[in-house]
């Protein structure tokens, strides 16, 4: 028996409890993992609170990320004792996830732990850090260089945003961080590498089809009016890497930025990212993130604290990354 956060549903309300379950309760998969660490993402917050209809089948163990050690494997790629990471693939949504001391998953979903990483660091990065790295790589592949101008990061206080600010600054870009919590987080965002911090309200108005050119690139985690405003302010030939919808899934914009300024809209997904691309992104983010990021923008909680922090993360009261120590 081992501890797990189990979600059940009663009268359409999601109930989260830490309880004991058995290995035989776990779903099918080729690899059984002793989970050392997980993390708390915005999607986890939606799942645990039931605010977002993330979970369709109950009971469910949430947790879209985990890192740990292989206990058993029927797949030749992994053997007992191997260190592994899992992010995405619908784990914690439709397959029992990482907020438990053990998990059984498909071998295809795993990535070997890089040599310069451990379970705690992997989960301090997690889905958010992997997604941020993929966004930065998308901008680089689109030809956006530091000399081209400012890069806007929306939702900069969150997991993806805070990592993106740090990575871009490390690569020499001038970063403008947009946040709804400027008073609380301006000092931290500046410390992470932002050259300027602006209030989210500057981007929340109804955007005109085109506005004054301001951004060479954008990493957007918010969507909706914030993204629409950013697109209207893009430089000629600029690119926006988009990966989130914290502000809603609508996009109230026009074709004008795309056909008159040659703006590129780059969709970024880390959930089903192919193995080779995923592995390369993991190594890149580990090489770029300074130790100061882990010290300044990460906090650690216990499994029993997840329901409380889930409420906080969906209310925008969590900054940076949350490591869950199993």
Largest sheet: 7 strands, mixed
Total count of helical runs of at least 4 residues? 9
Strand content: 25-35%
H-E order: EEEHEEEEHEHEHEEHEHEHHEHE
Overall shape: it is globular
The averaged pLDDT comes out at 96
Terminal-residue CA separation: 14 Å
Low-confidence stretches: none
Helix content: 25-40%
The radius of gyration is 20 Å
Give a count of the beta strands, DSSP E runs of length 2 or more: 15
Structural class: alpha/beta
Commentary on this structure:
The protein has helices at residues 42-49, 119-141, 159-170, 182-192, 224-232, 256-260, 275-288, 291-296, 306-314; strands at 2-10, 13-21, 31-40, 65-73, 83-87, 102-105, 110-112, 151-153, 175-179, 196-199, 215-220, 234-242, 264-267, 298-302, 321-325. By secondary structure, it is α/β, with parallel strands linked by helices. Strand 1 (2-10) and strand 2 form a beta hairpin. It is globular and about 60 Å long. The model has no long low-confidence stretch (mean pLDDT 96). InterPro entries: Acrylyl-CoA_reductase_AcuI, ADH-like_C, ADH-like_N, ER, GroES-like_sf, NAD(P)-bd_dom_sf, Zn-ADH-like_protein.
